[in-house]
Amino acid sequence: MLEDKTASVQNSPIRSSPLSRRIHDYETDSPIRGTPPPEGGVRHRRRSSEKSTPRARGSSRSRTRAKEEVEISPTAQIYKNLLILEEALRQQNAQQSKLKAKYTIFLVSMLFVLLLTFYVSFVDGGGGGGGGPSYWRFSCQVVGSIDFLTLVLYYLSGEYNRTITRPRKFLTYTNKGIRRMNIRLVKVRVKRVDRLLDMVKMCLLFPTIVLKTQCQYVLVVFPRFGLVIKLRNWLLEFEAKLQSSSGGGVDGVKVILNPRVFSTGTREQWELYRNEFWNKETIRRRRAIQRKQE
């Protein structure tokens, strides 16, 4: 049943992404391994007298990799595709959230300018001199008219629907599309403590980068200063930890299986597979950041 529900995920073009290659490398160490070899099978060792050429070793390694790919169980393959789909949906959700935040700020700013110019033009009577309207009031009327026309065109052109309404209903539209696969996309509930820790990390990140830069300048003048070298190495590790989120890789949204279709064991196995992958992926990213900064 699980194979049929995720057939469209296996044919998805996002399988060639870098994440899919890392997931494939992770599969050999995952809790859901490939099928065991048949009982009674005998592996014949190569005789020591046979010559091992580089071409033969290369073909042997390619056959070994092909055999590992064949031995991947269907369940592990489906979980891999679900991870790729989840990461793609997470990136789309992040893009939609940024788009909504940017245009929400734009809309609020335009409304604030419109209210301010309306107040100066029609409510505030202490404008310029005696009879007619002052230049300031006339300028506010022009700005208010342009602002109002911009807001009207912004709404009538459909940009309001594209930049604010659709990103707000991203989960609803996505769940309608993946309903036939018996999976759902839900928001990850972040605890207040984790949210506070993320804010503290953001506050500590800039001083850490500044202090690390100062240590690098000192090492240019004194390249064998042991205390500064230890401090720089510790700052590199600390910066990598600060740049990693508290939720690992499961940020924003995640994919869950439909409890009406899948058993509790299958759902727990999927959660275990995803958590172990993102734990290893977080460690790999920290090491990559450290190697890049060194």
Structure characterization notes:
This protein has 2 domains: 75-188 and 250-292; 189-249. Helices cover 69% and strands 3% of the residues. The protein is built from 11 helices and 2 strands; from the N terminus they run H-H-H-H-H-H-H-H-E-H-H-E-H. The protein has helices at residues 2-5, 7-10, 18-26, 54-70, 74-123, 135-156, 159-168, 170-177, 192-221, 226-243, 264-293; strands spanning 183-187, 253-257. Strands 1-2 form a two-stranded antiparallel sheet. The protein is flat, with a radius of gyration of 29 Å.
Keywords:
11 helices, mainly alpha, 2 domains, two-stranded antiparallel ribbon, 294 residues
In short:
By secondary structure, the chain is mostly helical. The chain has helices spanning 2-5, 7-10, 18-26, 54-70, 74-123, 135-156, 159-168, 170-177, 192-221, 226-243, 264-293; strands at residues 183-187, 253-257. It folds into 2 domains: 75-188 and 250-292; 189-249.
